[in-house]
Design a protein that fits this description.
419 residues, alpha/beta, Rossmann fold, 2 domains, eight-stranded mixed beta sheet, seven-stranded parallel beta sheet, 46% helix, 16% strand, globular
Length: 419
């Protein structure tokens, strides 16, 4: 088996952590994997997955393989790989993995190309690097692809742009758009794991600080909520008037970044856009300001501008780089501007990824059944899959809910009953 991981001797540790995560993923482990083992809905299908190589992802890969698929995995971010997990997937589960934490850009893309050489029938993306590389460098292979999935807001934005330009050659299910994904994974997962990453990187007290959140989408809502819960004074910056209004109604201060930059102690970007924090903001930041990003790519902070402005740079902690400016002020960049929740911490808790990866597994099954009937475009997760994931999660949590009575169904479907 061809693979490229850091050290196979880490495999036992990784296996233990994979099994620990599995305990908190009952939907994927029990409700989906057990059926996949019996039915083999993915038999004969080659799946190339460019995802964060974490314990939760490992359990998704195991489920897909149990469903009959031939699975290949590479990292969707150079700093998010858990090397022990990568080793365990190779050694104990016979799944080829191409991922090493801290790999350079050339290695990162060489790993993506290794997956594409396997001529996948389904692609799974976390940021759309796999699918964009496939379209740019291996266009002849697109005809063999039945369909793909995309996990992130950033990736969905890229794929919709491809579809709009007529460049997308096969259908893609936007797993990120599933209600059981973005309402929970983005809000509760990103919220908790981002704070976790900032704390592990800095060991700073959040209580009493001024915490600036750039972007008030579902991820921003989660980060702002958790920062406030830790005792911070939270400021939200936005470009969308509706989201800005919502942030204010939720009790947060709202202002332009140029004003927030003057008072913030800790900054976190979650917008999916470029240069959200840039030179004019660095120029007015307080000495000791901490800047981080929890969006998918390391473009939300204008790091080249910070490099140009700095007269001195040094690494002060494992995930903390100190930039000293000409006037002596110091700005601290976390995790090289990459997503701090996966670079400096372990990413989302398994419980919330249980729903996201249940959507991935069921979307892959849907693609096998319906992919040939779909035109090249970006599609939301079918409603019956989204609802089924919610039902399975409630069942796993031991929660029962009401059902509509026949009378209630009739009332909701009638226009005549009224008052």
């Amino acid at each position: 088996m061809d693979f490229h991981v850091k050290d196979l001797s880490l495999a036992e540790q990784g296996k233990n952590r994979i099994e620990w995560a599995e305990i908190d993923m009952p939907v994927l482990r029990k409700e989906i994997r057990e059926r996949f083992i019996k039915e083999k809905p993915l038999k004969g299908i080659r799946i190339a997955a460019c995802l964060h190589v974490t314990t939760e992802t490992a359990n998704l890969m195991r489920t897909l393989k149990e469903g009959g698929a031939e699975v290949y995995l590479c990292a969707s971010n150079p700093l998010s790989t858990q090397d022990d997990v990568a080793a365990a997937l190779v050694k104990y589960y016979d799944i080829p993995v191409f991922a090493i934490k801290g790999e350079d850009e050339d290695t990162y893309y060489s790993h993506i190309r290794e997956l594409l050489k396997r001529k996948p029938h389904i692609t799974m993306d976390d940021g759309a690097d796999l699918i964009s590389t496939l379209h740019k460098e291996y266009p002849e292979l697109t005809s063999e692809v039945i369909g793909g999935t995309e996990e992130t807001t950033t990736g969905v934005i890229r794929l919709k742009a491809m579809a709009k330009d007529g460049a997308l050659k096969y259908p893609v299910i936007a797993v990120n758009e599933a209600l059981t994904k973005h309402l929970f994974d983005n809000r509760y997962g990103t919220g908790q794991s981002t704070i976790d990453g900032i704390l592990r990187a800095t060991n700073r007290l959040i209580s009493g600080s001024v915490f600036v959140v750039a972007g008030y989408g579902w991820c921003g809502k989660g980060v702002a909520m958790r920062a406030r819960g830790m005792g911070a004074e939270v400021i939200v910056t936005e470009v969308d008037p509706i989201k800005a209004l919502e942030a204010r109604m939720d009790g947060f201060r709202v202002m332009p970044m140029i004003e927030a930059a003057k008072v913030g102690d800790i900054f976190c970007t979650v917008t999916g856009n470029i240069n959200v924090i840039r030179e004019e903001h660095f120029r007015v930041m307080k000495d000791g300001a901490i800047i981080s990003n929890s969006g998918h790519f390391n473009v939300e902070i204008d790091i080249p501008a910070l490099e140009r402005m700095a007269v001195k740079k040094r690494k002060v902690r494992e995930f903390v780089e100190e930039y000293t400016l000409q006037d002596g002020r110091r700005i601290y960049l976390l995790a090289e501007g990459r997503l701090v929740n996966l670079s400096a911490a372990e990413g989302h808790p398994a419980s919330v990824m249980d729903m996201s990866f249940a959507n991935q597994a069921l979307s892959a099954e849907y693609i096998v059944k319906e992919g040939k009937n779909l035109k090249p475009d970006v599609y939301v997760v079918p409603g019956h899959i989204d609802r089924r994931v919610a039902e399975l999660k409630l069942k796993a949590m031991g929660i029962a809910i009401d059902e509509l009575t026949p009378e209630q169904v009739e009332y909701l479907n009638s226009w005549e009953m009224g008052t």
